[in-house]
Write a structure and sequence with these properties.
single chain; elongated; 137 residues
């Protein structure tokens, strides 16, 4: 059984700065991966990963976060391809479609970065709710 939980982070100022720096680093890496993927003939996750993974890791990004960066980029290209195919970006040759096809997909510095149980953990026994009780046990 998979349990999905939505949580609100309340980081200290130092933790918030570290999270923001991590987010910016991941999105800078995503922009680089997108530029590489844009030049490639194949944008399959495996092909993009083979060309970019070691460089992302050398930028100080953890292995699971690197996998998420690559997947995020590949998913963005899949969405772009679907939108082109559906005609959402105009007819072939239209200014909007030509621009979308000719430029790499870009990510804002504060764009979302996925986290899961492999790159995020909780110390539930150290957490206290507002009522003063531990949320577990």
């Amino acid at each position: 059984m998979k349990l999905v939980v939505q949580v609100k982070l309340l980081p200290s100022p130092g933790q918030a700065a570290a999270l923001e720096a991590t987010l910016h680093t991941c999105n800078d890496a995503a922009n680089w991966v997108s530029a590489v993927a844009h030049r490639m003939a194949s944008r399959r996750n495996y092909d993009v990963r083979r060309r970019t993974y070691s460089e992302i890791r050398s930028r100080g990004i953890g292995s699971q976060a690197a996998q998420h960066v690559i997947k995020k980029v590949c998913d963005a290209y899949t969405t772009l391809k679907a939108n082109i195919h559906a005609g959402n970006l105009g007819e072939p040759g239209s200014r909007r479609r030509v621009r979308a096809e000719s430029e790499p997909v870009t990510f804002r510095p504060d764009a979302a970065q996925p986290y899961d149980q492999r790159n995020l953990s909780f110390a539930l026994d150290a957490v206290r709710c507002r009522c003063g009780r531990s949320p577990v046990g």
